[in-house]
Batch of 2 targets.
Target 1
Amino acid sequence: MTIMTLRTLFLVIALLAVTACERGTPSDTSGTSSGSSEATVASESNAADQSIEVGKDYHSLSNPQQIIVTNIALDLDVDFAQQVLRGSATLAFDRKQADANTLVLDTRDLTIHSVTVNGADIEYALGSADSFLGAPLSITLPADAQAVTVAYTTSPEASGLQWLTPAQTAGGQHPFLFSQAQAIHARSFIPLQDSPQVRVTYQATIRTPKELLAVMSASNDPDAARDGVYEFTMPQPVPSYLIAIAVGDLQFKAMGERTGVYAEPALLESAAAEFEDTESMLIATEQRYGPYGWDRYDLLILPPSFPFGGMENPRLSFITPTVIAGDKSLVSLIAHELAHSWSGNTVTNATWRDLWLNEGFTTYLTYRIMEIVYGTDRYNMEAVLGFQDLEADIDRLDAADTILAIDLRGRDPDDVFSNVPYEKGALFLREIEQRVGRDQFDAFLTNYFKEFAFQSITTDQFVDYLKQTLLVEYPDKLSEERINQWIFEAGLLDKLPLEESDAFTKVDTARMQWLGGERAASDIETKDWTVHQWLYFLNNMPEALSQEQLADLDNAFGLTESRNNEIAHSWLLMSIKNWYEPALPRLHSYLTSIGRNKLVKPLYRELAKSEKGKALGQKAFAEARDGYHPLTVKANLPFVE
């Protein structure tokens, strides 16, 4: 159900300076939104107002407001020799306008062989390509057509696919393929309406070499025979960015009644042990926020070139191996991807301007899940570290990019992925929780997930829902003005709902004593420190440290050789800033063995600040580039050019 009200509302939006803006009355827009409003955003020069059509997807060339795709049936061959997918997509659709006769799909670098209806060729045209939006595929439909079949081949350079040689895998014997569709990369391996507003069911037949197993974000059979032909069904409607495929030498191990892990044989046992609490997380989340609606919840452990920590593909989250630490210290990532099963996959952002509705809610749920499963101390530590990450991004980003309802017109939506939609969004929700009470806010969230289940909504729709629920129930505790400031203003507000951690107090004391020369690093009692305490210890060091200080830390704690990828990242960043040469060989090894952007991008960015650093970065990038995902290449290329 979509709730929109007619109103005129003044908001304050800070871009590079604080300027006034107006959100007017609702108007009809594209996609599945049944109502929207216009937000007027002041330009940087404040010379003229620019109108944002709320609910309009500026990152899709398709036309779901006239004809909307409802189901996709894929029939694809996986060709490792040519590094392409080859086959067809049959798209069923509804005509939202009875006289509409042109279906427009998003594509990027696809070779279109034919478009047919019931086996008969029909007219189509592939438009000119935009640098990041791709090219529209316009199909002229017969009057009685209800589905079209597009025969196509992907490009070896498809932005949403990564093809790995055997040498780039854990086993070293077989090739590997995986997809990454978020934000607008599904169009590089399927011709479709690539907008989060358009939700589709899908089926797939995938043909692979017989020794390999295919899995998808759909109904996977853990006992499937390896016969080279795999069938999949996704009965729930999902946005295009959640369609995912992987093919490799994969084995399965159950972790619970509804949970398990797929991985290469070399990683299977360690992954299953690391993530064995997944079933407990699933049960805890259901008890708090309602039933899990996707049947199974399995994990797929990808090779280290995967550009993200995880991807919340429904039924099968894709996970980086960099979080297999051996002590469950980084499993909040699993809680995060699981939480997306409620916030993001079930209730989805309608446009990439609304990403915070996915990630802010999910980050809030992640903290809650971690508290339930692992206790309040761990929750507090992770919340403190999360806020420090947010502060670092707000200091680094342009003011306009610290607004939750960000203006992304004319920009690649990948640019929105910072800590802002995650941590600022979660902080906003934590404030509401603290003001109305935890039980009351949990009830609100449960109802919210039910109200908008399997829908894609805008920020305005959420605000209207909030106004008709919590703002009515708690007018003395919540302020519409402050809510609008959280969502539509840059930076952070005052009186933030911050957590504190007693576990960090002794870390602060140890750091200050060491910096003051009162204690050698080897005399600091770290035996019982958690990974979170180590990160807090390192991340709050002064920017400038002497070579003697760095050597003291390294000799005492073996930081250069740390096998925990998060601790190693923090240490290597410190080493670059202070050019600690004993750590530079490990830095090169780290950059050439990991493709996760969260870990490598800050290192390349820091290296680019000096000539000798840039030279080191260029050498590592040149060696690692062929093994990096296209998104990692795109994100880091500016630092090595």
Note: The first strand starts at residue 9 and ends at 14.
Target 2
Amino acid sequence: MNSLLPPIVSPASVSTESFLSQMARDLTARYSPEELSDLVVVVPTRRAVVYLKNELAMATDAGEALWSPRVAAMEDYMVELAGVQVEEPITLQLLLYDILRDIDPKLDFDRFVSWAGLLLEDFSSLDQNLAPADKVFEYLSQAKALERWDLGEAPKPESMTAGYFRFWDDLSKVYYRLRQRMLAQHVAYPGLAYRRAAERVAEQLAAGQALPRHVFLGLGFLSKAEERLILQLLKAGLAEVRFDGDAFYMDADTPNRAGQHLRRYLKNWELPLDDFGGPAELLRGLPRHVRFVGVANASMQGKVAGQLLAGARLAHPTGTVAVVLPDETLLLPVLHGLPPDAVPDYNVTMGLSFQSTPLFNLVDLLFEVHLTGIREGSSETGYGVPRYHHLAVTKLLGHPFLRRYQQWLDKQPNPEYHGLLDHICRAIVKRNAVLLPATELLELGKEHALIEALFKAWDTCDDIIAACYTLIDLLKQVYQEQHSAIEAEYLYLFYTLVKRLDSVFDCREQRLSVRSFRRFLYEQMTRTRLPFSGEPIADVQVMGLLETRALDFDHIILLSCNENVLPAPKRHTSLFPYDVLTEFRLPTYADQEAATAYHFWRLLQRARRVDLVHVLPGAEGTRTGERSRFLLQLQNDLLPQSPQMVLEDVVVVAVVTGANEGPHPPAPSPVERGSQTTATQPALGAFSPISAREGAIADHVLTANAATWRKTATFSKEMRKHPTPAEESLWQAVRNQKLGEKFRRQHVINSFIVDFICIAKMLIVEVDGDVHAEAEQAEYDAGRTHELNGLGYRILRFSNEEVLNNLTTVLEQIQEMLQSLPSRVQPENIPSPSHAVVDSQPKFPDQTAYVSGSSGSPLSTGRGGPGG
């Protein structure tokens, strides 16, 4: 196994006792076993519950029995105290609609769906932060607004402004009616549960009821309801609080917002400094080795994380490591990038979002077909036959789920439907039409149930639900004999979501439009997760940032350290105007940024080895954010105050794995253009990082090592001699820098041969024949694309027909992609990559960059095939 960089060693090789371990020792030392069993210990998350229970067991002397205290996550405990059940948002939205219809019978359901979720979140935030509802709605009323805006006179009744004020005037009635109905049914949204919990504890204390003693550990940013609950128990002498703070962000004169909320609690609650961790000098006092690891694009982060983790386990086998994902969409790339030999055991705490599954992609493509199609007519005259865009139809029919179903169908005894999807795709190409009538697609599908489920017109949500049921019944046949197939889990989860919506809307008079149904379905999918099983306290954890609260690890690998991810972008996700939030001290994005800052710095407090992975600015055009502000604070604020910290800044140029490594091992491929050759690539060392110096972003593109290139050069030369008509046509259009950039053809990358490549832009263009529509080849192409994306390349694919019949459009798309990508041309002053590069004036202590590669590697020339 080749590691990314030399592993981090001393002085950061010693572990520091975790916060929960300290608290467990403190509790067992101060309380007798009988007293301990009567305690209620509240921690931020359910993951922290598991870790604290383990630490309590470890703190107990061998052979001694321990009655564990009640340990609960804050959210679960607040709901329990409230005595209600948190209801699903979809049920609450329908209840809200019924209340609004009583006030405004003309309310359109589809319009209501677009803002109902936001309104419920605002109500929840209002309750969770104990805002006075009467004063909030009075502040929003017309009279107060006119007074603030100084308009002089009221707007006309028929104006849009008057309608705006009527909405807010009615909202007070809606809020109280909704609250009354929910409490009558013993259900609530989360914020109301928090308000009820604080109110019930106040009532119990006033009535003199006996309550247990509480210990609150490791909490951070608290809602007003949580604050009131804790203060009430503190005043009654029934609580103690232990925050996990650090002097770096707790100092009174620090501008760091990570301690914003803890400093306020320290000032207002009159607690001793010991309850805030001292605050300790962990960030500035402990030896720590930190690396900034820049990568070319987001897709490389999964492979980089796997190699970093492999190196960490090799250097420190007994250390604890957390791979932290602020962007949860990276979960699958990270899991695919974990090398099984080096990291055999790990635990995934976050669960796989349904939106990250291939089945969600299939559902999304299905809605795209129906929503981008054209259907003329009206509800009065009747709608005509829908016509679907050929690109949306082709993408849908090429989805792996449908291709696997086609493979299963080909094995059935009835030959009528063998090659059904390929037959439809060929007919679409032959017809050469932009819009395809649904009737024609159904006819091409020979009335097969799958084609009817995909392309039969959708008029109401009943049609969508029926199509989903049919699709599930057909696709599940493929996996009936594979009881362990994860695709079967996807299908079952999808079935439960559709069944839930079916039962909710079955007895209602409102029939949803396609767009409204999609909104409800996608909301359900967002909250649905596929859980992973594993050892809860394994040494290696893969988790989200919020799940790290109150936990500590020896080594942190934190991904997506870019602005607009860490922290999240500034978004006003509320129907309440911003001045209302500030007037009544409701949370804003500024509070969320401060909370994220606290999570980041607290996570680093006891870690001795830290890798912060970020996407390089401009690596994917203007969409990529700059380095996170937290990295800049670490470099310019913490580093000068930390004499024992070592900070390195490296850039990973390319990920190069052996031919048989990675999540998609190269599969046998038909002998044709673009296929993998039979040569195998010896391991090169996993990455090629270089020092962070001016102009040194992705200066060298490693396309093949010498041994692989020698074995594949003959194949690529032969393919250049005998191009297909489509390849020859495209080559004549791009050669000699006709698009402003130099292209090469039949170029060797790793152990692959690509049709065309612009090395300066790291752009690959592939021209595919009919064989690429076959299921086996499509699966191989997906793995090949994954490997090339991991190396930092962008890929454009065109069919032979597109190149031969629409060359102008093809060239326009290539030109557009070239303009959107940054140039990777190598500056002349960069040293040869065959030697380690050390900045002559390093910015940080021991800042050394490491470059893997051999003198025979075609780095500077981009060797792999001649250009033109």
Note: Residues 656-702, 826-868 have pLDDT under 50 and may be disordered.
